[in-house]
Write a structure and sequence with these properties.
It contains five helices and 34 strands. The protein has about 700 residues and is mostly beta strands. A hairpin with a 2-residue loop joins strand 1 and strand 2.
């Protein structure tokens, strides 16, 4: 907490800088816009509030992250992903939820920011990768569902998530920019600015943001421990000698704190360091159409304790003031060549990552920086890939890809964790695996408006840091999880249909999968403590997502989506744990060039197909959950071509409800010993001013 207070004045200056930048740059932008007013058309206006993302191609969703969003604009990457049908998150408190897609969690989702990995360090994923992502600091979010791409890293059996911020050539000298200011219920405050200065040959881009919120209240007016604060600052230097080439150097840092109702500790520090170099050239003449390369360095330095943001409860499992400091440094890179070979478009390339994990812990009497770091793990991966598209007729095409990886994990724990540590039987041992992945997908246009596709994908995934090192014990009869867990093998069919006209868009995705050696966590009573066993099982998964939008009359538009996931533990003949319940969303909106208003409804079925005590490293099933429905409203008004004012109310009727995927409340905050889910926020008002 003291470390965070030392930068409080810096954060205040950051917020002031954002506000000043918005004012100064928008004034200049208005002057520039007035000069060109006669040549601009209706498309220069902002789009309206985003409620549901729609696919841009089979299984691919792309969202402009700077657009206003309902519910309240996101505090982290996992929150923003809930815009895409099929996504959910495991709530910890007010921020830093852990993302889940189709009931799949953890490194089954390959998460990239600026084309690099930013894994967190907490053994229980308190600082999951998306904890370090402020969505509006990026230009776009790209999601590929299922094992239907191989070019963005290993193990993406559930999907691939990319937050992208690679610059483009400035068409004119001067500046470009955007930003926002937001206020909301429970003392929510956001400020952000994204500015580019330069010429058509070179530019400097600065991205700043600061956000915070107090504890929210549920539908009964009961405060839920959930306060948080975050700030980020990033600078990019770009060289653009022509329209098709960009070379960019990125440097960034950030920090934050978060109170967690569902954890035994809070996060008092989420410090990140980022350096990367990116290069891209496209539209070359000849068979070699383009190339891209990335080299990156990411470091997460996370401190958690039970005394900075709470008072330890004498009846809790951790009655004494304690802290734990973990860090994870990742160095990686990627290079790819794009080929134009007649009817075949091809991408070939390679990537690598080298990750080091360290820890130190102690009591409140000593500061973390006074203790030495202890390295406990090294995780390496090297892969090569080929991915392409063969357009063999005017109406049909075949997407394909193949990948091979070599994964190595080195166990450097001299002793085991827990109240009574002992010598680690797998100390200094290395696990190595050669992993194969690939996919084949047929796409066909039945007509200019109607398209169908079907694809088969296979992914082999090495157990990640949390699966190897966080479990108390491994499979029955094993020394520990590190020595015994097997790589996961997922084989999955994905299929779907899309229908598009200027007024009507409909789409549906379905999937059927088998997962051999699925890694499952099970609660394990260990004396007075509850540990976890990590084990391999065989599983089946299936489900679907569907949605659409219809501009049915003039300015009127309706949107909707539904998502369903199902999982079975075939080894034990029971449901698979931590599967999201069926969910539907619908909205109706009135939109003009100047203003818009909409109503959004969300309904979630109760989930009674559960596996009590089983799930993943973050959450295990508690008991059956009740269904619920909520309503939200929003409106937006274009003050002029640069300024958009938007406002909304979430949970209009102040419903008391909780999500199925959840953490249990900590006794430190007065929650009972019997597991109780954390309730969602009650009625929430917000107001946002956006400039671009």
């Amino acid at each position: 907490m003291n470390a965070y207070k030392r930068v409080a004045s810096a954060r205040a200056c950051l917020a002031m800088a954002v506000a000043c930048a918005l004012y100064a740059t928008s004034a200049a932008a208005q002057e520039k816009t007035n000069d060109n007013a006669q040549t601009q058309d209706q498309h220069t206006y902002f789009e309206h509030v985003v409620v549901t993302a729609t696919p841009v191609s089979p299984l691919v969703f792309e969202v402009e992250t700077k657009l206003p969003r309902q519910p309240m604009p996101a505090s982290d990457g996992a929150d923003y992903l809930k815009t895409v049908p099929g996504f959910n998150a495991i709530r910890n408190g007010g921020t830093n939820g852990d993302p889940v897609l189709r009931g799949m969690h953890g490194s089954r989702l390959n998460i990239l920011t600026n084309e690099g990995n930013m894994p967190g360090g907490c053994p229980a994923r308190m600082d999951n990768p998306l904890s370090y992502v402020s969505p509006e600091n990026f230009d776009r979010l790209i999601v590929v569902k299922g094992p239907q791409t191989v070019q963005w890293g290993p193990g993406a059996s559930a999907g691939t998530i990319r937050f992208d911020r690679l610059g483009q050539r400035m068409t004119e000298g001067g500046f470009e920019g955007n930003g926002h200011l937001m206020v909301g219920a429970f003392d929510r405050r956001d400020a952000a600015v994204d500015l580019r200065f330069g010429t058509p040959t070179a530019f400097v881009r600065t991205t700043l943001n600061q956000a915070e919120s107090n504890d929210y209240e549920d539908g009964n007016g009961v405060a839920v421990p959930s306060a948080w604060k975050k700030w980020n600052a990033d600078v990019s230097l770009g060289y653009t000698p022509n329209d098709d080439t960009v070379i960019q150097l990125n440097v960034g840092t950030g920090d934050g704190e978060a109170k967690y109702a569902g954890r035994g500790m809070d996060g008092r520090q989420f410090k990140r360091e980022h350096v990367s170099v990116q290069a891209r050239t496209q539209h070359l003449v000849g068979r070699l159409n383009g190339y891209e390369a990335t080299l990156y360095y990411n470091r997460a330095d996370h401190v958690m304790d039970n005394y900075s943001l709470r008072t330890p409860h004498p009846q809790s499992m951790m009655a004494m003031p304690m802290f734990a400091n973990v860090d994870r440094t990742t160095l990686g890179g990627r290079a790819a060549l794009t080929w134009a070979l007649g009817q075949v478009e091809l991408v070939t390339g390679a990537d690598f990552s080298r990750s080091q994990h360290r820890n130190r812990s102690g009591s409140a009497a000593i500061a973390p920086e006074h203790l030495p770091w202890v390295e406990d793990a090294r995780i390496d991966n090297t892969g090569v890939f080929v991915e392409g598209m063969w357009k063999f007729t005017g109406r049909s095409q075949l997407a394909f890809g193949a990948r091979t990886d070599t994964a190595r994990v080195h166990d450097l724990r001299a002793k085991t964790d827990g109240m009574m540590p002992r010598a680690n039987p797998s100390f200094n041992q290395t696990r190595t695996a050669d992993l194969q992945s690939g996919f084949l997908r047929f796409e066909h246009n039945l007509s200019p408006r109607l398209a169908v596709y079907a694809g088969l994908g296979h992914v082999e995934r090495m157990p990640d840091y949390w699966e190897f090192f966080s479990a108390s014990v491994g499979p029955v009869g094993s020394v520990n999880a590190f020595t015994a867990l097997k790589p996961e093998r997922t084989t999955q069919w994905d299929f779907g249909v899309a229908y598009r006209t200027p007024a009507l868009q409909l789409w549906a995705n379905g999937y059927l999968g088998r997962v051999h050696d699925y890694i499952q966590f099970t609660n394990l009573q260990m004396g007075m403590m509850i540990g976890a066993r990590a084990d391999n099982i065989d599983a089946r998964i299936r489900g679907f997502e569907a949605g659409g939008s219809w501009r049915f009359a003039g300015h009127w538009k309706t949107e909707g989506s539904v998502a369903y996931a199902w999982g079975e533990n075939r080894s034990q003949g029971r449901p698979l744990g931590q599967i999201t319940p069926m969910e539907a969303r619908g909205s109706i909106a009135y939109e003009t060039q100047k203003w818009s208003a909409s109503i959004l409804g969300r309904g979630v079925r109760g989930q009674h197909r559960i596996a009590p005590g089983q799930g993943n490293v973050v959450g295990r099933d508690l008991e059956g959950s009740r269904g619920f429905s909520t309503w939200a409203i929003n409106t937006s008004w274009h003050l002029n071509k640069q300024w958009l004012l938007s406002a909304g109310v979430d949970n209009v009727f102040n419903r008391l409800y909780s999500e199925h995927l959840n953490r249990t409340g900590s006794v430190d905050f007065g929650y009972p010993a019997n597991p109780i889910r954390i309730n969602e926020p009650g009625r929430t008002l917000w107001l946002k001013l956006t400039w671009r």
